[in-house]
Amino acid sequence: MLTIALIQAAGGPPAAMQFLLFGGMAALFYFLLIRPQQKARKEMEARLSTLKSGDEVVLSSGLYATIDRVEEKVLWVKLGNATVKAKRQAVVALASEPDTQN
Fold it and tell me: Model's pTM, two decimal places?
């Protein structure tokens, strides 16, 4: 009990040190989590905007398809002999891109 009273009487670390610690943690969080995610999102948006008829893509379901027609928000893709409608966001990669996942 005496130890706790002595720690409370001595006070905590200076306010500037607490502010620097908090600021450092926020900067670390930004550079390790937020910034890479924003960069990946911008790259994906750029890829989706350049899709054209004839491109072979991988859909989020894992299917490989060839783009038949491109509209503003949807793509018409060929799966074998069938042509189906898919959202642009369903495209996760171009089939010609190397697989970056382990």
Answer: 0.61
